[in-house]
Amino acid sequence: MRFRTQVSNVPLLHKIVRSLASLARLCIIRLSAEKVHFIISGNEGKDGVQVWSQVKVPTLFTQFRIESNNDNEIWLEINLDALLKVLKSADSSAGTTNEASRFNSTALSDSDVSIKLNKRPAASGGTGGQAIWVFDIKGTTALGKLMSITHEVNVNVLTKKRQDELNEPMCPPPDVHLVLPSLLDLRNIVSRLSHLAEDVKMSANHDGAMELSVMDPRVEMSMSWRNLHNPAASLPADGEADATPKDKMFSTTVSIKGLLKFLNCHLVGGTAIACICEKHCIIAYVYIGDVDEAGGVLTFFIPAKNYGDD
Amino acid sequence: MEDDKTGDGANPVLVAEINDVRPFARLLRGIGLKNMATVTVSKAGFEVTVEEVKTLCAIAWIPNTLFQTFEFNEPEADGQGHAQPACFEVSLDALLQCLNIFGNATSGPVVSTFSVGTKRGWAGEGGPRAEGEEGGGAGAGETRGGGGNASKKGRTGMRMSWQGPGHRLSVMLQDDPKGPLTTCEFNLYEPEELMNQDFNQDDCVLYLIMKSEWFRDALADLPPTSQRITLTATPRDRPRPDDELGATMNSNDRRSQRADVGSFAIKAIGDFGSTELDYPNDREVMDKFDCPEEVSFSYHSSHFALLTRALQSSIKICLQIENSGFLCVQIMMPVSEGVAMGGHSGILEFKMHALADDES
Q1: Mean pLDDT per segment of 10 residues, for chain B of length 360 residues?
Q2: What local confidence, expressed as pLDDT, does residue B268 receive?
Q3: pLDDT for the residue A279
Q4: Which residue of B has its CA nearest to A24?
Q5: pLDDT at A24 over 60
Q6: Helix (H) / strand (E) containing A188
Q7: Which of B103, B131, B184 faces A188 most closely, judged by CB atoms?
Q8: Under a CB-based contact definition with an 8 Å cutoff, are residues B5 and B166 in contact?
Q9: CB distance B98–A187 less than 8 Å?
């Protein structure tokens, strides 16, 4: 099993990992020659939120070399906090713009980061040994000096059995697709809604309207957006065109914490499309880079909260 | 969702519209010491009362001039012909959270010197902080300056309406005409009986008006560990005290001057020392100062801490004390343009009892 690569877009990788780190402790990374998948599966994600995403290798990496007995794929599990720390030290572009802290920061800028899969030998020459990712970072400090840092992060290579257990969650075809307004704005709003209640009902229709509503003994609040865009995929096939009235709202109730976890990915900055499967889940696709370039997409599954016969 | 009783053709009791919720939210936040508040609506505006028994009573007087539109109609009599008061109890916390939904009704950082101020939850500022909230000013934290969001364009407009007793309170908010519209329906409750002791003007032994800034700074300077604050006022033309042994010339002069013109002093004793601030009855310091005889009363420091938020952004305070020590502090907000002489743009009133001499 061999793997090594250069990271061509350190800030982007950093943003992706920052978004994921708020969701879970551990993340599964599935490496293949063409794509890299970041997976946060069912029992791992907080509030049941899952992430199944894929990024084309060239979007993040160059000189990508992978070799294994498993169709040249490698699946491994890594601790997101550890990964985040490594990337933070390589990328000073994120975080505060405070002058003072820039000079105090130990993060490097303009870094060359390379990743290699290695094995740390077991103690006293026994069998086994810990699989690790070795990060070699060469960059410039805030004061302009060249510096080289090496990190070793433990990774857990998944067995075939474990790989087979990982499956994207099943869900029915979505009822409606919608391009979401600015994720940052949404996140700030939902964060304030979280003070009022625990659950939020998200509704949308084929006419570009979206609604978030919250219910609490003290107040019922609902926010509505108009003139949002329904991507073409959601239009019903010909012949069914009259079946669903354009203004029928489809809704799902989800935990606000779960929704907020998803909204933390506003850092990645791309277009976000939400699909509502009524009373089942919300699936959100966050595009990395241009939608047309299809550099990659983070897919979030946010399960609905069931209240029996609601 | 249960249906609201639709208006039976009658005019709504209240319709109020405002272009920028900030002054409105500021006033409400100033009295946010409890979650629930009693609201009385009249032609003049709102009277919002929050009372904590054995602590203090806080009232926000919100004039109709704050609003671009303010229409009030007396509620119709009920089935038996009894007049129904335009009065209800509502969750102040929920109301403030809603007014701030676009992030444009936040307070600046709250400097509260007495630790009690921070342990106590405050209306509109509570709730779990969302995890992973990071910097970049991205709406990170209500108590951290209007910063982040408010700096973008930040004017949340509001339309509030109330059909009358038996109906919910409706509030519509919008930040940007192209942005989302928020609709809130507040459940209202029967107002509780309030003690709300009136201040007896005829029994007043001290009446002064001074700049808020001085008072606010004084409270901030008092030792955080103190339990009681003592207010002392002396009238003018007192016999000058003898020079104190070892005191500076400046210090002796100051004491003489105070004896001549009258003074107001705030004192508190903490674990590590005491602080006393005194203000002469000087035209530059006091707008008004009526003190026929020396008076001195003490109050709980923690109760004074509750005035901190109200004092921010205010311009003047009027402090009155009754013979019994019952204190009434009225905090006046900056008067907006276009308000008639004698009118105001919001007053926050706090009333509390003095401590008995042996209490701490």
Answers
A1: 47 93 93 94 95 91 94 88 89 93 70 51 62 30 35 76 94 89 95 89 93 90 89 90 84 86 91 89 90 93 90 92 95 84 89 80
A2: 93
A3: 86
A4: B132
A5: yes
A6: helix A183-193
A7: B103
A8: yes
A9: no
- H helix or E strand, kind and range, residue B157: strand B157-162
Q: What is the ipTM of this complex?
A: 0.81
The minimal CB distance from A219 to the residues B102, B179, B185 is found for B185
Residue pairs spanning A and B at CB distance below 8 A:
91
| CATH architecture assignment, domain B14-186 | Box (3.70)
Set of chain B residues whose Cβ sits within 8 Å of the Cβ of A225: 179-180
Query: In terms of pLDDT, which residue wins out, A143 or B262?
Result: B262
CATH architecture of structural domain A176-303 = Box (3.70)
Say yes or no: domain B204-319 is CATH 3.70.10.10: yes
- Stretch(es) of chain B classified as CATH 3.70.10.10: 14-186, 204-319
User: What is the spatial distance between Cα A72 and Cα A65, in angstroms, rounded to a whole number?
Assistant: 10
A213-272 per-position pLDDT tens digit: 999 999 999 999 999 998 865 455 544 555 678 888 999 999 999 999 899 888 887 889
Going along chain A, which residue ranges are E strands? 2-7, 26-31, 35-40, 50-56, 61-67, 74-79, 109-121, 129-140, 146-157, 176-179, 199-204, 210-215, 219-225, 250-255, 272-277, 281-288, 296-303
Q: Do B139 and A216 touch (CB under 8 A)?
A: no
> At CB < 8 Å, which residues of chain A contact B?
18, 21-22, 95-96, 181, 184-185, 187-196, 216-225, 227, 257, 260-261, 264, 266
Q: Which CATH architecture has domain A2-165?
A: Box (3.70)
Task: Read off the tokens for A174.
Answer: 């979505």
